[in-house]
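Let's practice the habit of predicting before peeking. Look at the sequence and jot down your guess about where helices and strands might fall. Then scroll down.
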Amino acid sequence: MSPEQLVVYNKVISGPRGKIEGPLRAALYNPELADRWQALGAQLRYNTSLSPRLSEIAICATGRLSQSPFEWYAHRREAEKIGLEKEILDAILAQTQPPFKTDQEQLVYRFACELCQHRSVSDSTYAAALAALGALTLVELTALVGYYTMVAMTLNCHEIPLPEGIEPAFPLPQHTGAMG
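Done guessing? Here is the structure:
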């Protein structure tokens, strides 16, 4: 690593992530990009008004809808650590309706799904999310989904590998024959 890369590497491993994996492996080729990337990711993952549970619902939905096996793997583990139920995670993976406990969870999931699938949300979803979450949280949720879409694209494009011995929950989009 160059001295600049080493500075970013040390910053990441000394923070809440504790290691470099996933998209930062690719971003580290450009230390300034990697540094800004990790700062934005830390802000959106650890410092928003969304609860960890709501954040992980949005991230898992984004990872699955972006067809990113690595993102799904990494955030399913995180979701399990914070107590997100297996039935909810299995439904997100299967792309069926998850049995959420609250209307707020359902709304965050619906918002993330619409944003991923349509690159925007319906007026009714926006109005419901604004009323339930408030403007600040809604802006943060939109940024979270956008950030993890960028993460998924990077992971997929560069085929960042899963840890040894881990099988992907689904294939990369470029391996399904559906891309062209």
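How did you do? The domain at 50-175 is CATH 1.20.1290.10 (AhpD-like).
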